Amino acid sequence: MIKTGRMPERTFFPKGSVPVPGRHVTDHQMRLYMKFRKIDGALVAAAKASISASTAYRLEHDRQLRSHKEQTRTRRRPDPLAAFFDAEVVPMLKAAPELRVIAIFEEMKRRHVDLAEGVRRTLERRIRSWRALHGANQEVIFRQVHEPGRMGLSDFTDLAELGVTIAGSPLDHRLYHFRLAYSGFEHAHVILGGESFVALAEGLQNALWAAGGAPREHRSDSLSAAFRNLAKDAREDLTRRYDALCADYGMEPTRNNRGVAHENGAIEGPHGHLKNAVRDALLLRGTDDFADLIAYRRFIDEIVSRQNARHTKRIEAERPTLQALPGQRSPDYEETIVTVTSSGGFLLKKVFYTVPSRLIGHRLRARLYDDRRDLFIGGTPLMTLTRGRSTTSGKHGHVVDYRHVIHALRRKPMALLNLVYRDQLFPRHAYRLTFEWLLEKIGEKPACQLMVELLALAHDRGCEAELATILEVGLAADELPDMAILRERFAPDPATLPDSSVLLTPLADYEALLGGETGEVS
Questions:
Q1: pLDDT at residue 224 in the model
Q2: Closest CA to 205 of 369, 9, 15
Q3: Which element (helix H / strand E) includes 496?
Q4: Which of 88, 196, 205, 215 has the greatest number of C-beta atoms within 10 Å?
């Protein structure tokens, strides 16, 4: 038996008209509902008006428009700030607009002991609203359109927080960071000293030669940061040198206003990205220790290269717009004259450097780089020394090579006992520990004599690293070094080797072999 009858009404919603919970029904929706309700059921009319079924049933009993019955919402509880906000908080905000909310809240708690902790959030909202209506105008950031080949930016960033070590020793360093504003090309150079002209000149030129050209404008705040504590004459001299460097590459030097970092925003922001990339790479590497500085610099170069690879197309598009580089690099060093004293070295920027004693009394020309000192006598290169740093307490630093003074210590071994740079004299940690142990075990004079013999052995036989290992084993076993055994182990003694001389055949003998012909060979 087939039953017939009217199918029950089903609720349907047109596409894009599903009612949203939590939203108030508008006057327009109510008028639509009442219009469709004349010909349709409540559920169908509700669907056409985009309201829910429960709202439709409620409107069946109350068809008054929302706008006709809407009333202003009043407070449901007393205002906890009414007693003091206008009288005490507002004067504070007017007198010190930068005052933090937490400071105001703490002050109000001191003045009103019965003030509840839960009022802090209410105070924050009230102050935020007051500042929006009555506060001072804020700094506006104007976004810029960068042209290809126009601007390059330089800045320094500190990486001490990453905890990088070189052969176990902490590396206090910064990164010089260069970036082309248009393409995003980056270059980074590890800086061991502070923000100086030498560091800027070396890093900037490395970046320009890596980019293959120079932009028309170079912006930096490093000069004001590095030179603001110098005397006026020195500051003007360094500024002239910086202007000359930019002129060599055809760049216009510009600087952002001091303390306004967003004017250098095209590189300030990438600072954080570069730091995060280095931090992530160190975590993936599994260790933050490097064998030497060269290995760490290669590590940084690899990270920067990966970041540049993401902007290859823009970099290749900008390169043709860069200015051509000069024929050679500009000097990226400072030059000064030093005199080697009777102490076997010279003092430069509060650091004492030792040199071979044959140079005592000579005046040397020193070129100061960020990580080294190149020495010349006249125009002849002598040697390169690692750059030293003075201590934070202001005491002089020391860069000492025991090979420079070992011959003098052989004649005066007791000079080792109270030597100013004694700790820096020892080439490895094991030598210093051995000397301290010898002082404790055999006394001052025998300890100095034996230690000088050990250093002389390391120098003469070229066994510095192997001897350090033997000394470590001896310290662990609490045994004195035996010089006879050590000399036999690292034999032969260079002094006992015979001198060999090579006799050169006179050129006349070769002419005789050719039959006496001295003319040109056709």
A1: 53
A2: 369
A3: none
A4: 215
Its pTM stands at 0.64
Pick the closest to residue 456 from 422, 431, 430, 429 (CA basis): 431
- Please list, in sequence order, all residues whose beta carbon lies within 8 angstroms of the beta carbon of residue 123, skipping any fewer than 6 positions away: 81, 85, 89, 101, 104, 105, 108
Per-domain boundaries in the chain: 9-67, 85-134, 151-321, 334-399, 403-496
SS3 347: strand
Helix or strand or coil: residue 471? helix
Nearest-angstrom CA–CA distance, 127 and 250: 52
Q: What DSSP state is assigned to residue 40?
A: S
pLDDT tens profile 36-65: 988 999 899 999 988 888 888 888 888 788
Q: pLDDT, tens digit, for every residue of 133-168?
A: 998 888 777 777 788 989 898 888 888 888 889 888
For the domain 151-321, what is the CATH superfamily, name and number? Ribonuclease H-like superfamily/Ribonuclease H (3.30.420.10)
172-219 pLDDT per residue, tens: 888 889 999 899 899 999 988 777 788 888 899 999 999 999 999 988
Q: Which residues, including other chains, have CB under 8 Å from residue 126's CB and lie 6 or more apart? A: 81, 85, 89
C-alpha R_g of the chain: 40
Residue 175, Ramachandran bin (φ over 0: left; ψ between -120 and 50: alpha; else beta): beta
In DSSP terms, which residues pair with 376 in a beta bridge?
A: 365, 381
Mean pLDDT to the nearest integer, 116-145: 87
Q: How confident is the model at residue 2 (pLDDT cuts 50, 70, 90)?
A: very low
pLDDT for 4 beyond 50? no
Alpha carbons 443 and 439: distance in angstroms, whole number:
5
Q: How far is the C-alpha of 352 from the C-alpha of 391, rounded, in Å?
A: 12
Are the CB atoms for 219 and 152 separated by under 8 Å?
yes
Tokens 């004067």, located at residue? 91
Question: 19 falls in which pLDDT band (50, 70, 90)?
Answer: low
The amino acid occupying position 153 is L
Q: Do residues 330 and 339 make contact, with C-beta atoms less than 8 angstroms apart? A: no
Cα distance between residue 481 and residue 446, in whole Å: 12
Q: State how far the Cα of 450 lies from the Cα of 445, in Å rounded to an integer.
A: 9
